[in-house]
Amino acid sequence: MSYPVRKFDAVIVGAGGAGLRAALQLSEAGCKVAVLSKVFPTRSHTVAAQGGVGAALANMGEDSWHWHMYDTVKGSDWLGDQDAIEFMCREAPKSVIELEHFGMPFDRNENGSVYQRPFGGHMQNFGAGPPSQRSCCAADRTGHAMLHTLYQRNVRSNTHFFVEWMALDLIRDSSGQAVGVTAMEMETGEVFIFHAKAVLFATGGAGRVYESSTNAFINTGDGLGIVSRAGIPLEDMEFWQFHPTGVAGAGVLITEGVRGEGGYLLNKDGERFMERYAPNAKDLASRDVVARAMATEIKDGRGCGDNGDHVMLKLDHLGEELIESKLPGIREIAKKFANVDPVKDPIPVVPTCHYMMGGIPTNYRGEVVAPSGEDKEAIVPGLFAAGECACASVHGANRLGTNSLTDLLVFGKSSGDSTVKFLKQNLEHKDLPRDAGDLTRERLDRLNNQTNGESVSEVGAALRQTMQRNCGVFRFPDLLANGVAEIKEVAQRVMRTQISDKSKVFNTARIEALELDNLIEVAVASLVSADARKESRGAHDRADFAERDDENWLKHTLWFKEANRLDYKPVHMNPLTAETIEPKVRTY
Amino acid sequence: MSDMDRLRWSCRRGLLELDLVLQRFLNEEYPSLGAEQRETFNRLLRLQDNDLLDLAMGRADTSDKEFGVLVNLMRK
Ligand SMILES: Cc1cc2nc3c(=O)[nH]c(=O)nc-3n(C[C@H](O)[C@H](O)[C@H](O)COP(=O)(O)OP(=O)(O)OC[C@H]3O[C@@H](n4cnc5c(N)ncnc54)[C@H](O)[C@@H]3O)c2cc1C
Fold first, then answer.
1. Residues in chain B closer than 8 A to A215 (CB atoms)
2. Which chain B residues are Cβ-neighbours of A336 within 8 angstroms?
3. Measured distance CA(A188)–CA(A183) in Å, rounded
4. Which residue of the set A6, A117, A141, A287 is catalytic?
5. pTM for the full model?
6. What is the value of ipTM here, to two decimals?
């Protein structure tokens, strides 16, 4: 018995900024497009973005896309593909202005132009400075406003939304072409096949692989799990961006302003350890120095708490008055998410995962590419990806702030355009393969019939701890090797998860088990890729290989689920029209 | 149909802070609410993520009295 089939020109999985932007291109071109989302579109994680969207509009002084490009290449520690980066930076101003015309309520200057604020890493004059004001915001609700603007526009163009539907697996035919997905309607538990001429993934990040993460619970890397089960590799999964101070256990960010105002970090002995690592700057040392020191204290057994897995951020000496006036909101956050009043007690903090640089390999047109024969970047017909789940790669080894909203606007649109073009060249649906849906059925049957199995929450916790302990912000060879072994054991346990509630209707236990199937692919890919990369570059910071090694490692990692195989492909050093930005030592 | 499961999924939001606040509320406060308050909670969940979080964190207030009672429980 096969699953019921619904037919569309294209199916887009994900309704965050990237999915909505892509969907708009398709709907406005008159294509019949289905957009699937686990949650109501405006509750996608894009809603969390506050800092703004980067684009060289030059509204606040001189700026140019060339400078934006330079900053992005440098930020990426030269792992970003320069053709994709040029494309993004050149298109960014158009994308932002277009969004403004769609009705996005950007903050404005007196003359009516979009107001732009400065943001770390964005400079004038090819990195020489001064800082460039490049970030466009809508108060502190940029992501929220972006989602609303794009959602409304999609509703107007008759995009077909399937809300609270979870995509489960990709269907490819014998030639490898993507011809649809299986998806579950949460309300009924029914599974359907979405038969399409093209499939586009925009499922966002996977930050929930870490114990401490700023990502919402829905960020489980579903698109990555789905494509890796379908034989497509994941690119550069060793690169995760961390923030030094998130509330331990919760992940909620504590702004760096706390250290700016005089707060400092303590280990379990009550020692102000930053004095040892950075005698001058101490707790005001740069982000990576602070994060590295915290990780070292924890690894060397000087972490706090029963598990010794965090350090303390002390600010009570600043006094209630200063805390209330200079650090508004911090007291509330600490009370609510750490259960401490920082006026009296220190806040437990830990380096916290924020953004995934790697993902589904694509070119700058949003087409998914994978090795085939000699060609390392053969196009997978009918398959597209954009946003945080995709790796174009513009962020390389490290993302610049505000560049991810830029990414999802520019590549949301370009992947949508590529899909429209593909649909024009492929007028008919290709037949579904005879085994369409079998993988999904096997997975669901396995889950429903499992006995003597493992608890989803326990295995999930083991996965997150393994990642946090062994594949964190600062990486040690013994921990990486240990982590690879441990995560493979966790992967065995994931194959034996069991749920007690077998009902079909809105079964969150089942949904969480299915999410775990995706998280594990992301976690294994990250650890295996990180262990193999014997250098430090951007966010991949190793204690045993402290330097970047362009001779051996100026290349992208590709991880295949099958046998945990690794492959590599060259970085695109040639931009589309600009001159190559040659690798240099990256200092700020 | 499991009302609790549906609610649990409605508490999945785009903001981590809200996930945490709503998860706690659902586990610790919701079970002791009466039918009317449960209905109000359902209504509250229809708010936008940022608006709901501002209420929960005490950064904004509501003139809706029924909301007010639940918001106070969230702020605990
Ligand atoms: C706290 C915070 C602040 C940030 N601030 C900024 C900022 O100021 N500027 C900036 O540039 N970046 C910022 N970022 C990063 C940026 O917000 C994200 O990278 C970006 O919003 C991701 O957008 P997306 O469209 O790719 O995915 P998302 O917005 O995460 O959307 C993913 C979509 O996929 C759907 N989905 C997932 N799995 C499935 C499935 N199996 N079936 C069906 N649907 C599915 C979800 O329902 C959702 O609709 C921030 C991130 C965080 C955590």
1. 16
2. 21, 57
3. 12
4. A287
5. 0.97
6. 0.96
